[in-house]
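Because discrete structure vocabularies remain unfamiliar, it helps to consider an illustrative case, giving the amino acid sequence and backbone structure tokens:
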Amino acid sequence: MANGVFFKRDGADVRFYFPNPKAVLPVLTRSNAMQFITWGRRKKEKSALPLGGWAPLESVQSGYWDEWQPRPVKLPLTQFMEQDIFGNTQWFDITDGQFIQGLLARDGKEQRVYIVTILPQFGVSVYQRWPRILSGTVDPARPKGLVKPLHTHHQSIGLPFRGNIS
């Protein structure tokens, strides 16, 4: 699971770790604006939204998230940090033209974003989960670096949600 994230906000480097109750993730809107939304829910936070910061793809596909009106979103992160089964952490770069898929969940007016995860597809992995990384082509109508999704890395299944990625 991506326990930490790195991204740019107004030109400044931002690094958040999930346990931080002030952790937010950048969410790219359909109009190419950037919103910063609370990353998941921690144990001591009062909310009807699910605990944790991750949405396993199989739970999304099974309908578990349906009561929270799930919407797929793009998370334009620069890096993410994973912890392996031995407790070691490592930072991974996200290639230009790629983004991590997020799930925007809502309960009334409250909304939080979760990182969609998949089971690793690369040999014998020391990671239990992996963020769902998508890529696409540059859309000339969008600012440089913003992409239209084409396919998934590490897993070749379609989008798990109704509708398109925001």
Summary: The first strand starts at residue 2 and ends at 9.
